[in-house]
Amino acid sequence: MEFNQQLLVDSLKAEYKHQDLPFSLHIFNTVSSTNQTLWQLIDQTEKTNSVVIATQQTAGRGQWGRQWLSSTGGLYLSMSIVPQLAATNSYQLTLATAWGITAQFQKCGIPVGIKWPNDLVLDGRKLGGILTETKVNKGQITQAVIGVGINWANSVPETGINLQIWQNSQNYHMINHLEMLTSQVLIGIKSGIECLQTEGINILLSRYLDVLTNMGDQVYVNNFLGTVVGVTQEGNLRLKMTNDDLKAAVTPEISCQPGTISLGYRQSSVL
Prior knowledge:
The protein is α+β, with helices and mostly antiparallel strands and 271 residues long. The chain has helices at 5-15, 34-44, 91-107, 163-170, 178-199, 201-210, and strands spanning 24-31, 50-57, 75-81, 113-115, 119-122, 125-137, 140-150, 218-221, 224-231, 237-241, 253-256.
């Protein structure tokens, strides 16, 4: 699948009112990993505001070292930024990215939500994911690379969904081609990061929670049942625990770091 760079540029210029684009574009047919390729560019010359796009990855990575299947037909991209952020708050970049992309999809009439912490979901199945990597010096993030994968026309597992087939099933085609999808994702990343930087984590987090599909879900932690009530500024899942044996006057609340528990998917049906 050939990627039409001019079509992408035209879509972006329509958004940015024909101003200079706020990032440089590097487009490949196949890379091992867009994040890895972008880090290499950063080490050479490109320090910030760069984007790597590919239609296939041979060694895509997900969160916590998991493999990210990246067959032809999907969208795989990475953006570099230099955030003014403490290393302890690095997960806020993922929260901001997830919300920004989700909000952009919703502007297009596509009811995407977020499954904690970083999955983009549509009709209860995984549409895409986010991998944020950072370099840190003296407790501050000096460089960040935000990687995003979106299922467009590629094959997906049972828990996944691709956008092209979903639009066909709905007879609704707001996003008509891969290049338009790319522009919407890039605009979403920028808007999410700008929200974090200009309006702060409290505003960003409230917007993230508005589109979080897990609110009210129940999950077991060490054989105790908890209900999802929110997310902390560090990206941890907030659970209100039940403990009938203790009959406590106040139900305790705990938080779980990303990667320590899995919320799964509500639907197991296949499109």
